[in-house]
Specification:
Blueprint (H helix, E strand, L loop, with lengths): L4 E12 L2 E12 L3 E6 L5 H8 L7 E6 L2 E2 L4 H6 L1 E4 L11 H11 L4 H15 L14 H12 L6 E5 L7 H16 L3 E6 L10 E6 L2 E6 L1 H8 L4 H9 L7
Parallel strand pairs: 3-8, 3-9, 6-7, 7-8
Antiparallel strand pairs: 1-2, 1-4, 4-5, 9-10
Length: 247
């Protein structure tokens, strides 16, 4: 993690009619940081991520991603990030190799770049013998690891992961996080939303979203000390109940 700011938000707000999905959230994320966006379903996590990815225009506030403004330069943002949605993001009726070629082309890689990076991806995941297998035939855990590897195929500066381990067993979840650590070690900024409280412990810093508000932001250890508890889950439940930090 460096002092270079990859993501900056100031008073970022999104309203749908009278409903406030994100309420004046302000934060910064640094290059190479694993930044966790923690909250229950409906807390505003996905809405915030979609604004930062250039997929949804904010109602008010300011934000920049990789140095690009979310209002004026959404297309430039999309070229400099990787994105993995909470719903499986690859084409299940295509083979692993076909998905790699397709997304490599979308990301603007050359034919030779797709070939080299695709071969390396298959080798890293141990899927060389499965290259021509349909993605739909893979177990869910392998699908998710493949989707993440494809999301970073073009060496993006920032990767947004929206509930990436939903429905995955604990062992595979831990293996998935190993891929995240490897990407962060290469200097990639990881912005990950999750409602799994234990996954917050894997992040450099965690923000806790409650009803569209960012009610806390710090390292997991500091948050536990501030609230006088032993787990991020307890921090979350204290915030959800409106409890105060420990003296």
């Amino acid at each position: 993690m460096t002092n270079t700011i990859s993501i900056r938000a100031n008073g970022l707000t999104k309203k749908f009619g009278t409903f406030v999905a994100t309420d004046h959230i302000t934060f910064e994320v640094y290059a190479g940081e694993i930044f966790g966006f923690l909250g229950a379903n409906g807390a505003g996590k996905t809405t915030a991520m979609r604004m930062l990815c250039g997929l949804l225009e904010p109602t008010s506030g300011e934000a920049s991603v990789a140095g690009y403004d979310v209002y004026r330069e959404a297309e430039s943002i999309k070229k400099n990030i990787g994105y993995m949605s909470q719903k499986f993001s690859l084409y299940e009726d295509l083979t692993i190799q076909e998905n790699i070629r397709f997304f490599g082309g979308i990301y603007g890689l050359s034919y030779e770049g797709i070939r080299q990076k695709g071969n390396q991806l298959l080798a890293d995941l141990g899927l060389q013998s499965k290259a021509k297998a349909l993605v739909g035939d893979l177990p869910l855990g392998w699908k998710q690891k493949l989707a993440f590897s494809v999301a970073v195929l073009h060496d993006p500066k920032i990767v947004f992961l929206d509930e990436p381990t939903g429905g995955v067993d604990p062992v595979t979840r831990r293996q998935f996080w190993d891929l995240i650590y490897q990407a962060a070690a290469r200097g990639v900024t990881i912005f990950v939303t999750t409602h799994y409280m234990d996954e917050a412990e894997y992040c450099d810093r965690v923000s806790v979203m409650v009803d569209g508000r960012m009610d806390a932001l710090d390292s997991p250890q500091n948050l536990k000390e501030q609230f006088g508890v032993n787990s991020i889950e307890e921090v979350f439940y204290r915030l959800a109940r409106g409890a105060q930090r420990a003296d």
